[in-house]
Design a protein that fits this description.
The strands form 2 sheets. A 7-stranded mixed beta sheet has the order 5-4-3-6-7-11-10, with helices on both faces. A 5-stranded antiparallel beta sheet has the order 9-8-1-2-12. The protein is built from 8 helices and 12 strands. It starts with 6 loop residues before the first helix and ends with a strand. The protein has a domain of 181 residues: Rossmann fold (3-Layer(aba) Sandwich). Helix 2 runs parallel beside helix 6. Helix content is 25%, strand content 27%.
């Protein structure tokens, strides 16, 4: 499905009650649901826990100041901050940003497609827990991230462990029947991500699996001449909180059918 909604529509969906309730409680069940009964469980408990061994392998590969796109409850931001790594989380969910800051991390409630601090100067961008699907348009997201990173910057993305390349219109739902507004989402395996990334000037520098999760590291080929300007750049260590983008935050290897 190629339906694309504006970023503000997606932000509204993720600011809706089912996701906020789950983040505040630190547990699910929570799902992405489609009109035909397709359900994808979301790993709320893992997102709200401390960074695990698989997460730490991701963080070990980060370079320079880190931008966590769709940071959710903030476990990665908090872990990097505890190590004195300059890091900023962005998420469209107020509840997610609040939980991140409560853990001692810096986060802003903002879409990745909105103006952000230090555009063109981030060393690493993270797209984990399914956030490669943000906005339902992989090429638009990859192009935006290329502009946020410094020349030669690193993108670490988590992908579906299969050759999947699909666009869906989904809602966030919970076991009580609460549901968000619909928003576009994408699910990509590593081959599909690479197919979208190469024409935009990205090259794969690493691929690995851990705990059943799949990851790929991409490096931007962008030269300094094409570097985008940051209009109100703040240093990543700024005490100011920045709001972030997060069109969705699903995880899980494969959808399950509604019962």
């Amino acid at each position: 499905m190629s339906t694309v909604l504006p970023p503000e529509a997606t932000a509204g969906a993720w600011g809706a009650d089912p996701y906020a309730y789950a983040v505040r409680a630190g547990r699910g069940p929570l799902f992405l649901s489609r009109g035909d009964g397709w359900l994808l469980p979301l790993e709320v408990e893992r997102w709200c826990a401390r960074a695990d061994a698989d997460d730490l392998e991701v963080l070990r590969r980060c370079e320079g100041a880190v931008l966590d796109v769709g940071c959710g409850p903030g476990r990665l931001v908090a872990e990097l901050a505890a190590r004195d790594v300059p890091v900023l989380g962005i998420d469209v969910s107020e509840a997610a940003v609040a939980r991140t800051t409560a853990l001692g991390g810096r986060a802003l409630r903002r879409s990745v497609f909105a103006p952000l601090p230090d555009e063109g100067r981030w060393g690493t961008a993270l797209l984990v827990d399914g956030n490669v699907g943000i906005g339902g348009d992989p090429r638009a997201l990859l192009d935006r991230l290329r502009g946020l990173l410094a020349p030669g910057g690193l993108l670490i993305a988590e992908t579906v462990p299969a050759d999947v390349d699909e666009r869906v219109l989904v809602r966030v739902t919970d076991a009580l029947g609460r549901s968000s507004a619909p928003f576009p989402w994408a699910r990509l395996g590593t081959p599909a991500l690479l197919r979208h990334a190469r024409p935009l000037g990205w090259r794969a520098v690493d691929q690995w699996t851990a705990g059943g999760r799949c990851f790929v590291a991409l490096r931007s080929r962008r030269s300094r001449r094409s570097r985008s300007r940051s209009s109100s750049a703040e240093p990543p260590k700024s005490a100011a909180l920045i709001s972030s983008q997060r069109a969705a935050k699903p995880s899980g290897d494969s959808p399950v059918t509604a019962r």
